[in-house]
Amino acid sequence: MLQLRNSQGPRGRHAIGRTLLATALLTAVAAVPAAATAPQAPAAPAPVRSDAVTPAYQQVAHFYGAYIDAVTAQGGGRLATALRTFYLTPHLRTQLKAWEKHHHADGVLRAQSTPLAFRVTSGDSGAGHTWSKVRLTWSNGKHPTYSYLTVRSDLRTGKISGIGE
Question: Contact at 8 Å (CB) between 36 and 42?
Fold first, then answer.
């Protein structure tokens, strides 16, 4: 806390505090018109297709990291369900239940076991969605085994809306 020697009790401190606050506000207000009149670069047109990392792509990476950890952990079933609820659209959760019933496997991983590692790479975007490629690593050694999933995310919500092979 800032203490001033010349202040006389609490009233003096409050007056000095108000003076400092007013000075800071006036300085900020004076800087706004200068920033508002500064020349600005013309806005670039929005890309139709983008390979840049997007928040939706990051959501896919966060989801797969947390989901694999939850599925691997003993007693992580409730956490895996909570992650699905948070990251996946309701429609996709319904589709996964049907897929899992038919294939007797985890629909998110498209497998009966848990991968050793994963990697997410960004893909194309369009029509309100973006696609990511998820590589799941199933074995170590000289010749590791991989499987690949295509994950669709909704750009508006960032939620995962499709998982396919």
Answer: no
In this structure, the chain runs to a length of 165
Task: Provide the strand spans (E) within the chain.
Answer: 117-126, 129-137, 146-154, 160-164
Higher-confidence position of 51 and 160: 160
Q: List the structure tokens of 37.
A: 């009149």
Q: Say which amino acid occupies 88.
A: L
Q: Give the largest Cα separation in the chain, rounded.
A: 80
Note if the pTM is more than 0.90: no
Summarize pLDDT for 16-49 with one digit per residue, the tens. 444 444 444 444 444 444 444 444 544 444 444 4
Taking CA 44 as the corner, what is the angle to CA 153 and CA 49, rounded to the nearest 5 degrees?
30
Q: Which of 123, 113, 122 is nearest to 147 (CA)?
A: 113
DSSP annotation of 88 reads: B
Nearest to 100 by CA among 120, 84, 121, 124: 84
Report in angstroms the alpha-carbon separations of 125 from 6, 10, 63, 82, 100.
63, 60, 19, 27, 28
